[in-house]
Design brief:
The chain contains no helices and ten strands. It starts with a strand and ends in a 9-residue tail after the last strand.
Length: 153
Amino acid sequence: MGLMLFTSCQNESVVFEGSKNLPSDGWKYQNVQSFAIDIKDTTRLYDLTINVRHSNDYENANLWLKMRTIYPSGRSFEAPVNIVLAEESGKWLGSGIQSILSRSQKIYSDSKMPELGEYRFEFSQNMRRNPLEEIRDFGIALSKSSINQAPGN
C-alpha cells in the first residue's frame, strides 16, 4: 500500500494533499488511513477535503467514515463523516475515465487549528461490509480558507 504526497506550486492555498492506495482485497475496519500535517499558523482558517477514488462496481451511494483528529497536545476528537458518492437516482457524482471515478467533498470549511505543531487525521471505513471493496484510493487535502483570519486573531 503506497502513499502519494502532493505539493502544489500552482495553488498556494494548499497546505497538504496526500492520497493512499487501498488494498486490492478491500478496505478493512482496522486499516486506518492516517495523515500528519504540520500547522505553522494558528491565525488562519482552513478547509478540509476528502478525496476518494472508486470503481463503477462500488455498491453504495455513500461512504461512511470514522474520523479522528489528534491535536499536537495529544487531545483528540472523533466524528462520523458521510461522503456522498451518488445522487438518489444512482448517477455518480465523481468524474473519471472508464470505470474509475474520483470524488472530492469538503467536510470542514473555515476551521481553526488552535495549536501549533503536528495534527494527525485518522480515517477508518464505517460501512456495514468488511472488507469494503471497490474503494481504490483515499486522501485528504488541507487548504487555507478564503477567509483570511480566525475570529479573535
